[in-house]
Amino acid sequence: PIFAAEATVIYAGDLVDVESGRVLNDRVIVIEDGLITGIGSRATLDDMDVPADAKLIDLSDMTVLPGLSDSHVHLTSDASVHGYKRLQVSTSAAAITGVVNAEKTLMAGFTTVRNLGAPGFADIALMDAIDKGAVPGPNMIPAGRSIGITGGHCDNNLLPYEYEAKSGGVADGPWAVRAKVRENNKYGAKVIKFCGTGGVLSKGTKIGAQQFSFEEMKAIVDEAHLLGLKVAVHAHGAEGIETAIRAGVDSVEHASLISDEGLRMAKRNGTYLSMDIYVSDYILSEGEAAGILEESLAKERTVGKAQRERFQAATKAGVNLAFGSDAGVYPHGQNGRQFAYMVDWGLTPMKAIQAATIGNAKLFDIDKTHGSITVGKQADIIAVDTNPIEDVSALEDVDFVMKSGVVYKQD
Ligand code: ARG
Fold it and tell me: Which among 200, 277, 292, 295 is the best mutation to test ligand 1's pocket, defined by most ligand atoms within 8 Å of the CB?
């Protein structure tokens, strides 16, 4: 690999301990072979097992945190290309866009992302290239093709009938959707994404209308779970959300119009809500220039604020909250802008940071190896020069990034 991990000792001025929810002072972190092998204090450094060749990184005037994660991105999408402009983008071009955006995402401090849908398995190829060390990027959990009904949010509805345009993940009926799950798994997907309601950015779909019957959703979830894959559903409308939770999904993406009953169901089942409450600002200010259809802008005007209010209700209900941004709809590398919104709408900075670290790691089922600065876990570590517990917007400008013991950024 071109990115090799060295034995390292980090001096951390403040360290955000997301497991205990506390900030610790003057910590020392020892890293070997990409893993955290020791944590102590400057006073106990002499008693710690530090490799002789370890290099010192002094972050004693910074706040150190675990690498951030985002449960909902589309690395292969370009935020300045929406609507009919997207018809010009080949899968090969999307893959190259993904390489560029993977680096931006990592440099913004996001060391793990779930990529919830890409054309032609471009996201699987990207994950493989990153894992080999051929290109810089976050640890990826890719979905491959998003599964959806004919004419639904996960289909391509832009062209008239004679073009026979159809997205790769379209299937109707319980066995057909099971087959899609199996195909995604065959070609390397690590999570299953399906569309359970209409969406904002798709032509001719209604946000409030459920897509897939309960039987189809149940078939997707059961098949994915048999294969050991988690399921993320795109859903805005209350009924689609409730039906998907009943079918056993692991996370609801957007969850914009979730009902009180939906919140109760999510709480009871431990379902995560991955609410992208920043992106509305981008869609309504930059969307038109990027090619977003007028009908989509009209839908966004009905959903953006309502979603923030439902996010606030979710914080009060104590539901599991993921950090998911839908970056790709808006520019990659700006994922961190959502933190300030999550704090404005009901979370403490610590809770917002926990959602983007240990919380997401639990949803992704990688919390034994990722999500906190803990001995035995991957050395995914970032630092900022302003304490994010006092001003969470500090996470919009990350100064230091290490992934699996390799330093990618040091300002
Ligand atoms: N991809 C989503 C959709 O098209 C974006 C929704 C963005 N809006 C929002 N308020 N979260 O439905």
Answer: 200
